[in-house]
């Protein structure tokens, strides 16, 4: 079997925009747009159907059955179509007795359902946590599905989604998950984005190649529309902060907007080459929190090319002027090196400096830099 999730998985999930209103035609159109608008070439490869895809009961053999009104040609047909576009096909189930929307789930059916998914050509399984029995063991049931997926002989990325219950960062990697949801559901406003950011700043220690902390689907480009859309939706600065934080932390990037309607400015943001380069860095090291001033954060992250990244994120409603010292990042003034900083978002490169730098961060905004070591010839 291939090694899955060497870097954070990237793709599209139906839930944020469409909720229960999913159809075969819509999924095919999403696959088409991912190719035509450059998302596939930017690295987004999974097309994932979320909850509400099946009939409300299993068939007489206990198998899950796709709703024939929503998916008239069946899931194998849809999977084949997605694969024909050079993309991968994903589906949804749940560790409980019912999915979150009340459809049949996989508790006590793990191996049967895994074989069904494999027969349909599924490449990705999002596995939720609703209606989980009080007598059940969360860790054991996610282990059971991980074993079931592996037993099929097909490479199926296991996207565990237990919302951060039972501290999944301590065990999801060990039981075989490739990514794990560590938060409750996101909605399309900055309060939700900030809450998720603040809940996870200390939980990236286990993030790395093979298993990634999933902070939920992106809302970038939704503009208040869709299933989790809100009237007080994010503005461009807030969407940029969301995307930059997910990228900086090395989190999976699962788009949630209707890609057929995403504006050019948000499509450009979602395909930002340098932010995606940061997200997909081969070394997959987690970020290190340097400073936490009650919602104003400074992080560093070591990168595979011998550089490191600096991320500054402001969740407050007022701007922040601040000094960032290199000493707090492990590069003291007497180190004999200066740092050349390149703004990851704008591409602007600043002259090398040896001690600190000053910056302005707008309300709900961010700054992200790549730092390169320069030998200070005046020092040595």
Task: Summarize the model shown.
The chain has 380 residues and is an alpha/beta fold.
Count of extended strands: 15
Order of helices and strands: EHHHEHEHEHEHEHEHEHHEEEEEEE
CATH architecture of the largest domain: Alpha-Beta Barrel
Query: Largest sheet, if any?
Result: 8 strands, parallel
Helix share bin: 25-40%
User: What top-tier CATH class of the largest domain fits best?
Assistant: Alpha Beta
* Number of helical stretches of at least 4 residues: 11
Strand fraction band?
Answer: 15-25%
List keywords for this structure.
single chain, 380 residues, alpha/beta, Immunoglobulin-like, 2 domains, eight-stranded parallel sheet, five-stranded antiparallel sheet, 11 helices
Describe this structure in words.
The protein is α/β, with parallel strands linked by helices. The protein has two domains: 10-279, Aldolase class I (TIM Barrel), CATH 3.20.20; 288-375, Golgi alpha-mannosidase II (Immunoglobulin-like, Sandwich). The protein has eleven helices and 15 strands. It has an eight-stranded parallel β-sheet with strand order 7-6-5-4-3-2-1-8. Strands 9-10-11-15-13 form a five-stranded antiparallel β-sheet, with helices on one face. It is elongated. The model has no long low-confidence stretch (mean pLDDT 96).
């Amino acid at each position: 079997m291939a090694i899955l999730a060497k870097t954070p998985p990237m793709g599209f999930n139906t839930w944020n925009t469409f909720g229960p209103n999913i159809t075969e035609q819509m999924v095919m159109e999403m696959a088409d747009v991912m190719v035509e608008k450059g998302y596939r070439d930017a690295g987004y490869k999974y097309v994932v159907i979320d909850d509400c895809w099946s009939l409300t009961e299993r068939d007489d053999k206990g198998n899950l059955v796709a709703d024939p009104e929503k998916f008239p040609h069946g899931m194998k047909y849809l999977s084949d179509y997605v694969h024909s576009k050079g993309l991968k096909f994903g589906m949804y189930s749940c560790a409980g007795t019912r999915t979150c929307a009340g459809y049949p789930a996989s508790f006590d059916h793990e191996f049967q359902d895994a074989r069904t998914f494999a027969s349909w050509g599924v490449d990705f399984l999002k596995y939720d946590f609703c209606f989980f029995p009080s007598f059940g063991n969360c860790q054991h049931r996610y282990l059971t599905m991980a074993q079931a997926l592996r037993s099929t002989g097909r490479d199926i990325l296991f996207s565990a989604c237990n919302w951060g219950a039972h501290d999944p960062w301590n065990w999801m990697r060990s039981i075989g998950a490739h990514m794990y949801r560590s938060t409750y559901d996101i909605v399309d406003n900055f309060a939700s984005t900030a809450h998720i950011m603040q809940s996870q700043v200390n939980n990236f220690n286990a993030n790395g190649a093979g298993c990634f902390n999933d902070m939920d689907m992106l809302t970038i480009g939704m503009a208040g529309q869709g299933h989790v859309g809100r009237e007080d939706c994010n503005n461009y600065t807030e969407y940029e902060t969301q995307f930059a934080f997910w990228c900086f932390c090395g989190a999976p990037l699962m788009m949630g907007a209707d890609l057929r309607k995403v504006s050019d400015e948000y499509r450009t943001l979602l395909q930002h080459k340098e932010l995606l380069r940061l997200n997909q860095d081969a070394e997959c090291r987690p970020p290190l929190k340097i400073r936490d001033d009650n919602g104003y954060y400074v992080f560093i992250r070591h990168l595979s090319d011998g550089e490191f990244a600096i991320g500054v994120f402001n969740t407050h409603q007022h701007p922040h002027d601040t000094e960032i010292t290199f000493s707090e990042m492990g590069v003291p003034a007497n180190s004999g090196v200066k740092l050349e900083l390149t703004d990851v978002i704008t591409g602007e490169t600043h002259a090398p400096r040896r001690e600190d730098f000053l910056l302005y961060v707008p309300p709900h905004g961010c700054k992200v830099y790549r730092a390169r070591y320069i030998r200070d010839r005046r020092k040595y």
